[in-house]
Amino acid sequence: MTVVQKASVSNSACLLPSGSLHFQLPANSPARVLHQVRTLKSPTRGMLRKTLGMSQPSVTRHVRALIDAGLVEEREVTHDGERVGRPHATLGLDGRHMVTWGIHVGVRTTVLTINDGAGRLIREHELNIPVALTPMAEVLDHIAHHLREMGEGLPAPVSVGAAVSAHIDRNGIVTSPEYNWDEVDIAAELSYRLGHPVHVGSGAAAMAAQELLSAPLNGEDPGSTLYFYAREVVNHAWIVNGAVHRPHSGSTTTAFHDLARGTGLEHEEVHPLSGLATVAAARQAGIKAHSYRDLVHVSKTNPAARRFIDARNELLVDALTLVLDIVDPAALVLAGEAFVIDRVGLRNIVSQVRARRATSQLRISLAGPAVTRDAARLTGVYPLWADPLLT
């Protein structure tokens, strides 16, 4: 592995000294105001005062600072003829002159995004890179080359973020059999190649943060949520007390491997609950499938293929039930290929989880289909949103 000098990063509240992201609800006043402008419908200064509990002078000061920074703009709203009095002004997002870069590195697919300061997508590109079969340096060189090409003709990024679907520790170090990486400091490696400080985080955490940061602040506890992602890599994240839990060791959960023993889906090199393990077991049994999507398609006419998928789904239910029983969250969000492309299996999983939990209080929902793109986008723009007036 190439050893490089780690780039310096901000001391913002959202970052550890290493540049590892910690997603949470905004803590400082300008960030809270920006969050409300992002999430409220037609926000006004009065709405900001009411929802944030700030004084009028404070709201005026923070809004003016965000306008001067180019992140917020004032929009005049005219009357419809039925109302009397002066028109009132609403606030909206600006940030059009700012650029952020976001990356999501998956086992087979890497998503690159360029966004503006409001998080709006400007450019997007998808790279099909088999990470485990490609030298780490070559993978990151490829990513950096394409991202620089995408940024041609645009301003330099004000922030760059990278998310990985593999497990990552609290210092941003990735050790993953699925990636064939050992103690890779991805922030330092990408910072060296891109010439910009790079902040890194867990892809599952970024997906969970998308849920956390999509609703206005209202002074109430946002509740706890388990975000469970299953594709080539299986990972999960907790939303609790207004923050996404940050992993400490970054290691694969050994309990999931214990669940798989004796099921025929055990695998030494990949997560036993992953699509890769299921496809490997099916291929060993003579079923021709190159990917989990292929296996789901084959299962429509091949009962043997369906049995492998059902075996994986039973393991997913076991894992979900175990974790839900321990922490007892208010909501469960299911994300990733395992749930999106197999709707028959999804219905069975939800039914079994509800039956085992024996409660109707758990809210279960399915994440959107573009979660990896959204994770890349959010990882890029989040440092700006968390500390919008940082200079």
Strands, helices and their partners?
Layout: H1 29-39, H2 45-52, H3 56-68, E1 72-77, E2 88-93, E3 100-105, E4 109-115, E5 121-128, H4 136-150, E6 159-164, E7 173-176, E8 181-185, H5 186-194, E9 198-202, H6 203-212, E10 225-230, E11 234-240, E12 243-244, H7 254-260, H8 275-284, H9 292-298, H10 303-327, E13 331-335, H11 337-340, H12 343-357, E14 363-366, H13 371-386
Parallel strand pairs: 3-6, 6-9, 10-13, 13-14
Antiparallel strand pairs: 1-2, 3-4, 4-5, 7-8, 10-11, 11-12
Tertiary shape: globular
CATH C-level class of the largest domain is Alpha Beta
CATH-level-4 superfamily name of the largest domain: ATPase, nucleotide binding domain
From the N-terminal CA to the C-terminal CA, the straight-line distance is 33 Å
Q: What would you call the structural class?
A: alpha/beta
User: What is the percentage of strand-forming residues?
Assistant: 15-25%
Rounded to the nearest angstrom, the radius of gyration is: 22 Å
Strands side by side in the biggest sheet: 5-4-3-6-9
Q: Please estimate the helix content.
A: 25-40%
**Count of helical segments?**
13
* CATH-scheme architecture of the largest domain: 2-Layer Sandwich
Enter the CATH topology name of the largest domain.
Answer: Nucleotidyltransferase, domain 5
Unreliable parts: 1-13
Task: Look at the structure and give the mean pLDDT.
Answer: 88
Total of domains: 3
How many strand segments? 14
The biggest sheet, with number of strands, parallel, antiparallel or mixed sense and barrel status, is: 5 strands, mixed
- Sequence of secondary-structure elements: HHHEEEEEHEEEHEHEEEHHHHEHHEH
